């Protein structure tokens, strides 16, 4: 009887150990899964490619020159940076605050940097102004209290800055339809008629006397919008009471560059889908959703029909204010590209792209000091500047991490 009891006890122990191991395995799988949902910043171990290091001159706030060594880049061989020449970058005075998903407009030597996230739980409600002539941050302006804080659409006529729609508040709160105008001479704000519907990060530009707004994400922050509206404006005022419906854009979505040059309107890159608010969350906590980043380029000309142009060298999003116009070409700095094919993590872009308007072709003209998205770019006296955004985790990890206010410049010679 005692022997029978011992056998029964051993079997019970084995069953218990098996059950414990099974539960532990399931728990580990669950942790891995939810970590995947919660973060785009997990390191993936795989074969590495070596990209040579970058040496650049750095100028500090008191003018002394120094050499800044950017470490060699190691990146998973399954998803590498594009080959690109080195550029000599100088570090300039950082923005007063770090910002992600902010916006910017350049008017002559002044660079207006709007709003954005300070962190996922904090948003800015002011404008910082940088003077390219003196390379200093010279002024701060408060925004209207009911103006959106990120994912704005912005455009200018050289004096008035039009600020369209966007997300109000931190995390993944909802968009608003309001439209504001800043008179950069008087520093006064005014209102225009609201959009027909709220949008996140719509492509926005002034063209032929009309303010054009298209694409972006709809109210749930994820569904791409195809709508294209325009409003006649002059000297910061609306000439019409309501927005006019235009030809829908062929592909919707947020985070695209929208540029007018040579009397043509270009819409470049972007994505379909975005993070959404977690259902029932009282703080509208961001929850990851499927996204598709694309390389599409579209153009409107005098026929008012969308034309498809050669695609970007790689899919690229988060570039709405990352562009400048130089020598009949469009230059774009940084962004985000398709998810890593193995880890499914967000991958930042570290290249500088040039779109040649005479030949309608693309080239890769250089590397940034690091990979970074939602850069705010300007060009002055031969210098390409960029500031702010969210940079990579280091040379060997292209996933996003730190929100920055850094300002960099490089002398750009394009033919």
Task: Report on the architecture of this protein.
- This protein has one helix and 36 strands.
- The strands form eleven sheets. Strands 5, 33, 34, 35 and 36 form a five-stranded antiparallel β-sheet that branches.
- With 415 residues, it is mainly β.
- The N terminus is likely disordered.
- It is globular.
- Helix content is 9%, strand content 43%.
What are the key terms here?
single chain, disordered N terminus, five-stranded antiparallel beta sheet, 9% helix, 415 residues
| End-to-end Cα distance | 96 Å
* Largest pleated sheet: 5 strands, antiparallel
**Which percent range describes the beta-strand content?**
35-45%
Average pLDDT reading = 86
Helix proportion range: under 10%
């Amino acid at each position: 009887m005692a022997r029978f009891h011992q056998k029964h006890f051993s079997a019970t122990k084995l069953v218990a150990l098996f059950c414990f191991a099974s539960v532990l395995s399931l728990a580990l799988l669950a942790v891995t899964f939810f970590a995947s949902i919660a973060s785009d910043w997990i390191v993936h171990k795989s074969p590495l490619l070596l990209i040579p290091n970058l040496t650049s001159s750095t100028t500090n706030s008191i003018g002394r020159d120094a050499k800044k060594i950017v470490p060699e880049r190691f990146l998973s061989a399954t998803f590498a940076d594009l080959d690109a020449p080195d550029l000599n970058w100088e570090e300039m005075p950082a923005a007063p605050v770090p910002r992600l998903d902010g916006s910017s407009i350049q008017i002559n030597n002044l660079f207006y940097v709007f709003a954005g996230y300070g962190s996922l739980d904090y948003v800015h409600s002011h404008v910082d102004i940088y003077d390219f002539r003196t390379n200093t941050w010279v002024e701060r302006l408060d925004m209207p209290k009911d103006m959106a804080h990120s994912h704005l659409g912005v455009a200018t006529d050289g004096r008035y800055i039009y600020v369209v729609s966007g997300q109000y508040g931190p995390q993944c709160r909802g968009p608003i339809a309001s439209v504001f105008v800043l008179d950069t001479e008087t520093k006064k704000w005014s209102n225009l008629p609201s959009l027909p519907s709220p949008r996140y990060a719509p492509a926005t530009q002034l063209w032929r006397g009309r303010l054009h707004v298209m694409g972006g994400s709809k109210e749930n922050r994820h569904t791409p919008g195809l709508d294209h509206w325009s409003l006649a404006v002059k000297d910061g005022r609306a000439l019409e009471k309501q927005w006019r419906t235009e030809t829908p854009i062929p592909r919707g979505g947020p985070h695209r560059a929208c540029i007018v040059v040579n009397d043509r309107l270009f819409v470049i890159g972007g994505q379909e889908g975005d993070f959404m608010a977690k259902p029932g969350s009282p703080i509208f906590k961001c929850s990851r959703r499927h996204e598709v980043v694309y390389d599409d380029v579209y153009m409107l000309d005098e026929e008012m029909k969308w034309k498809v142009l050669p695609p970007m060298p790689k899919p690229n999003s988060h570039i709405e204010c990352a562009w400048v116009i130089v020598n009949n070409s469009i230059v774009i700095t940084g962004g985000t590209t398709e998810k890593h094919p193995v880890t499914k993590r967000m991958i930042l872009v570290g290249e500088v792209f040039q779109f040649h308007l005479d030949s309608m072709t693309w080239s890769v003209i250089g590397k940034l000091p690091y990979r970074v998205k939602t850069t705010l770019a300007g060009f002055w006296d031969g210098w390409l500047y960029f500031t702010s955004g969210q940079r990579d985790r280091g040379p060997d990890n292209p996933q996003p991490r730190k929100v920055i206010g850094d300002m960099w410049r490089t002398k750009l010679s394009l033919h």
